[in-house]
Design goal:
The protein has a 6-stranded mixed sheet, with helices on both faces. The two termini are 22 Å apart. 37% of the residues lie in helices and 22% in strands. The chain is built from 6 helices and 6 strands, in the order αααβββαβαβαβ. It is globular.
Length: 172
């Protein structure tokens, strides 16, 4: 799944300009990379995502940016994901809380860190710690976090996917 996310970023010609430029193009690209990750892990699923409506015209379920589910089934989703394009601690924790509250096989949160800002997460480990605070209170569920530095200006497109670190956080 992580490989599919990064591979999508590697093959997107606009990745460098989107990451170092305006937020809206980057958000769209990161969401498409999450769709690619969902398809890689659950190839037979249906997907609803911002910019990717399902056959019912829905682009969001559970207000999640990406939801993968079994067609014609009321089983819990297979995959839910959020792209939180800020480094605000409270926003990241809120998104983790939402995802951890949804029964799904895989939950993914993409976020960012930004050193030097009092109300932000300052490093990957700081972000993981913030998500850990939430996960401790929701046992028997885990979440995959993918995170990169918000302030980083990579030299070229190939460097963008390498910015992302990952960790699975959960309590059993």
């Amino acid at each position: 799944m992580i490989t599919a996310f990064k591979k999508h970023l590697e093959t997107a010609p606009e990745v460098h300009g989107a990451y170092v430029g305006r937020l809206a193009p980057w958000t769209q690209l990161a969401t498409k990379a999450l769709v690619a990750a969902a398809r890689a892990e659950f190839p037979d699923c249906k997907i609803a995502a911002k910019g990717v409506a399902d056959e019912y015209g829905r682009s969001e379920y559970f207000t999640a940016d990406v939801t993968a589910y079994v067609h014609e089934s009321w089983a819990p989703p297979l995959f839910v994901a959020e792209h939180e394009n800020t480094s605000w601690r409270g926003r990241l924790q809120s998104q983790a809380w939402k995802l951890l509250s949804i029964e799904a096989r895989r939950r993914v949160l993409v976020g960012y860190w930004q050193p030097g800002r009092k109300d932000r997460v300052h490093s990957f480990d700081d972000m993981a710690s913030a998500i850990e605070e939430v996960a401790r209170q929701i046992p028997r569920r885990d979440i995959l976090i993918l995170a990169a530095p918000f302030h980083e200006k990579p030299a070229d497109a190939a460097a963008v996917p390498r910015l992302f670190e990952s960790r699975i956080i959960g309590h059993w």
